[in-house]
Amino acid sequence: MSDAVLAAASGVVAPGVGWASGPLGAVQAADREMARQLAVRARAVAAFAASRPASADRAPGAPGAMSAERWAARSEVLQPVSEWATPELAVALNLTGRRRRRCWSSR
pTM for the whole thing? Predict the structure, then answer.
């Protein structure tokens, strides 16, 4: 079965110029696979975050707990997630700085 037939069967919308063959077709196929893998990664990050509830963190004001100011500055979507999930994910993926922040962003 060709890439074009597989893509059509999976609901992938063909580009305006259509599916190419040869090297450009290989680029298109690689791009589709990269998008698929990114979706797999996003679902895995979400599952990881769900497995690290904020309820297991130290209580506000306890030694080692996140400060009230930092807690208030957190994105609403991350409030149910442990404060330690981000550093744990960063270490596991060898992420630093901007790459670490982008991993949690919705962009």
Answer: 0.70
